[in-house]
Specification:
Structural class: alpha/beta
Pfam family, one: Glyco_transf_4
Strand order of the largest sheet: 2-1-3-4-5-6
Helix content: 40-55%
Low-confidence stretches: none
CATH topology of the largest domain: Rossmann fold
CATH architecture of the largest domain: 3-Layer(aba) Sandwich
Number of helices: 14
Keywords: Transferase
Protein name: Glycosyltransferase
Largest sheet: 6 strands, parallel
Strand content: 5-15%
GO molecular function: glycosyltransferase activity
Length: about 325
């Protein structure tokens, strides 16, 4: 068995959760000893499509004509397309129909959570579907003083200075407005949002928020990976992710794997795997502020329970689940 892993628009999406999910798929296949390629002109038995653009659609139909098995990865839903790009809310119903078409044409769907599985099925999709976490490489987010020093030096963090971290694209859906408002109410704490996207494809209000409409204790320094990012995940004082909609949330797994204090919005995607024993779950700006103050003052510490959640979604376990999915597809 040989798998074609496909990601359209790699230069844009490699900075997103979908891009990191592809890296996790490669890692999982390496662990399982299953050969794979990213060359659409190469030979393969199963194509695993991670994106939804016109080239992805063409590949889906071409693979079906050649008698190849097609897996669509359910990273995206109509719900998480909303409140993202300019015009996303206007086009969300049409995008939902387009997604449903691709999901219906596939032989099999893998999606990161039971929540996203339920959403996809609600579109009338009858294709066999299984929930398999994007997974997390626990070793990458093991506490490392050298990586934390790289993070602290890069951002010139002073001794005793409290730092709250977030990571994601500049989307309203990610809760970026609440992130800024919480920071406004906690002026003695540094709030750093790691991530970036072309600012001209996001609404003007969000673009202005990133560029200038935020207090001085908020920073949007751009996208980071490697030692700076991994050191930030373990070296910050808390990870605050106020997203309104996710299909899993890879950054949440990364924070939990880093034994980090995690403060989240209480949304359906976390039900069944993240609870109030492993993270602070909130519903409003007031609750975010209250939870962060408790974390930063040492009144709350849920890191051990959070790490156990990350362990339950380790890349090793995901590799086994992916192999079973591929085998199931070949036997269809």
């Amino acid at each position: 068995m040989k798998v074609l892993l496909y990601l359209e628009g790699k230069s844009v999406l490699q900075k997103s959760g979908i891009g990191r999910a592809l890296q996790h798929q490669m890692h999982a296949l390496d662990l399982a000893g299953i050969p794979y390629t990213t060359d659409i002109l190469g030979d393969y038995d199963v194509v695993h499509i991670n994106t939804y653009g016109p080239r992805s659609l063409l590949l889906l139909h071409a693979a079906k004509r050649r008698g190849k098995k097609v897996i669509m990865h359910g990273h995206s839903t109509r719900e998480d397309f909303q409140n993202s790009f300019i015009g996303s809310n206007l086009f969300a119903p049409l995008f939902g129909k387009y997604l449903a078409h691709m999901y219906k044409k596939a032989d099999f769907i893998i999606t990161p959570s039971e929540y996203s599985k339920q959403l996809i099925q609600s579109y009338g999709v009858k294709t066999p579907i299984v929930a398999v976490s994007n997974g997390i490489d626990l070793s990458k987010y093991k506490k490392d003083p050298k990586k934390e020093e790289v993070f602290r030096k890069h951002f010139k963090i002073q001794e005793g200075q409290k730092v709250v971290l977030c990571a994601g694209l500049y989307f309203r859906r990610k809760g970026i407005e609440d992130f800024v408002e919480v920071a406004r109410r906690m002026p003695d704490v540094r709030f750093i949002w790691l991530g970036s996207i072309n600012k001209w494809i996001i609404p003007r209000k969000i673009r202005r928020l990133v560029e200038k409409d935020h207090p001085s204790n908020v920073e949007f320094p751009g996208y980071f990976k490697g030692a700076v990012f991994q050191g930030a995940m373990t070296g910050a004082d808390a990870f605050f992710f106020p997203s309104y909609e996710e299909t899993e949330g890879i950054v949440v797994l990364e924070a939990l794997a880093g034994h980090q204090h995690v403060v989240l919005r209480d949304i359906p995607v976390y039900h069944g795997w993240v609870d109030d024993q492993s993270a602070e779950l909130c519903h409003s700006v007031d609750e975010f502020v209250d939870s962060l103050e408790k974390v930063l003052s040492g009144q709350v510490d849920k890191r051990d329970a959070g790490y156990r959640v990350a362990q339950s979604r380790s890349i090793d376990l995901v590799a086994d689940q992916l192999v079973k999915a591929y085998q199931q597809v070949l036997e269809m």
